[in-house]
């Protein structure tokens, strides 16, 4: 028999995660977003069991992605680097991504976004468009994960038994 003071079950988190991923996948499939898989991927990476963890992660991921998208778009538009320079940028941003992974999530996301935009630009895709799609998808995925978490908290407050 389980004691009351044991750790909570992972089932509520798994249900929230399933709902969030299902809804986010349907959003990008229904509206046909380019690179829309970033919406559920972001929701998956942002959603955590605790509200503060989810909020911190959503803010850090969104801020880092927006900053990385702006940085990479600006660099690609104004520098117009040749393929060898793009390859060096790809290697630099990949190295920075691995180096900063456990240091600061927002900074990690910034250089990860710059890496992805540079990598796709190296493959002759328009970097500014890739950066734009990634920024929009990240905002949608992070916002959806945070919204689901807040809805669950609201539901629990409304349906919890009053103390007394």
Describe the protein in words.
The protein is mainly α and 164 residues long. The chain has one domain (23-151). It contains six helices and no strands. The longest helix is centred in the C-terminal third of the chain and has 33 residues, at 127-159. The chain is elongated, with a radius of gyration of 19 Å. It starts with 10 loop residues before the first helix and ends in a 5-residue tail after the last helix. The mean pLDDT is 84.
In total, how many beta strands?
0
Cα-atom radius of gyration: 19 Å
Helical content, roughly?
Answer: over 70%
Q: What structural class results from the helix and strand content?
A: mainly alpha
**Roughly what fraction of the amino acids lie in strands?**
under 5%
- Write down the overall mean pLDDT: 84
Compile the SSE list and pairings.
Elements: H1 11-31, H2 38-46, H3 51-79, H4 83-100, H5 105-122, H6 127-159
Give the tags.
mainly alpha, 6 helices, 164 residues
